[in-house]
Design brief:
Layout lengths: L15 E2 L13 E2 L6 E2 L4 H9 L4
Antiparallel strand pairs: 1-2, 2-3
Amino acid sequence: MKCGLCGNEFKEEEAAQGCKGCPIMLGCKLIKCPRCGFETPPEPKWLRLIKKRRPIK
């Protein structure tokens, strides 16, 4: 996965979970970039499958 703010490439397992203390969106699925903390939704499963078969640069 690539951060849309700083460009850091990381695996979803390395990211922190977003919105931990947010009272509005309990159970939010956003993830945080381990470098800058920018929150983004996880990559869709279909995109991960495509990347496994054919790496996107």
